[in-house]
Amino acid sequence: MEQTFIMIKPDGVQRGLIGDIICRFEKKGFYLKAMKFMNVEKSFAQKHYADLSALPFFPKLVDYIISGPVVAMVWEGKDVVLTGRRIIGATRPWEAAPGTIRGDYAVEVSRNVIHGSDSVENGQKEIALWFPGGLAEWKSNLHPWIYEN
Ligand code: GTP
Ligand code: MG
Q1: Residues that are catalytic
Q2: How many angstroms is it from 15 CA to the middle of ligand 2?
Q3: Ligand 2 center to residue 119 CA distance, Å?
Q4: Ligand 1: which of 92, 110, 114 to mutate, most ligand atoms within 8 Å of CB?
């Protein structure tokens, strides 16, 4: 099944949103395949956001990501990349619908609580970067109650 990389950013951690965020992905019917709580090195944050390195806010973005611990996770499920982005909401919190994580909890684009991979391909790249040791193999007994196949 499809996988995505999700990261609760330092503001999400500091504000006590870890449980709520995990709950939303878990209750939806996605599988947690890997998770770690960690501080990120500057060079690692630069690598994660390398595609944005030419943008003017890049140095501020990197400083934000290394400003405190983050929760790095891999979630698996049907259409989890796109659906995960919908659960997260629009990049700019004022454009994020109520009911989404950013719509409910964020105000500033530079403090938008959570990251989610934007494509299956980028998801696989991010998973390889953050979890080079691989993922947990498991399937819930509830699987047939959530998925047809
Ligand atoms: P991620 O899931 O974090 O990758 O966000 P995204 O995919 O919704 O947006 P994008 O990849 O374009 O930007 C990455 C991150 O850069 C955003 O989540 C913001 O935290 C930050 N960012 C984007 N635009 C701006 C901006 O105009 N100013 C500042 N300060 N930060 C921005
Ligand atoms: Mg992005």
Answers
A1: 115
A2: 21
A3: 9
A4: 110
Provide long-range contacts, Cβ within 8 A and 24+ apart, for 99-106: 101/17, 101/21, 101/24, 105/12, 105/15, 105/17, 106/11
Token digits of residue 21 = 């965020």
Cβ atoms of 9 and 64 within 8 Å: the answer is yes
pLDDT band with cut points at 50, 70 and 90 for residue 50: very high
What's the confidence (pLDDT) of residue 149? 84
For ligand 1, say whether the CB of 100 is within 6 Å of any of its atoms.
no
Q: Which domains does the chain have, with CATH numbers?
A: 3-146 (3.30.70.141)
> What residues have CB less than 8 Å from 129, skipping those under 6 apart?
47, 48
**Which residue has its alpha carbon closest to ligand 1 atom 16?**
61
Q: Closest ligand 1 atom, CA of 64?
A: 20
Residue for token digits 């990120």?
A: 40
> How big is the CA angle at 33 (ends 27 and 36), to the nearest 5 degrees?
100
**Complex-level ipTM:** 0.96
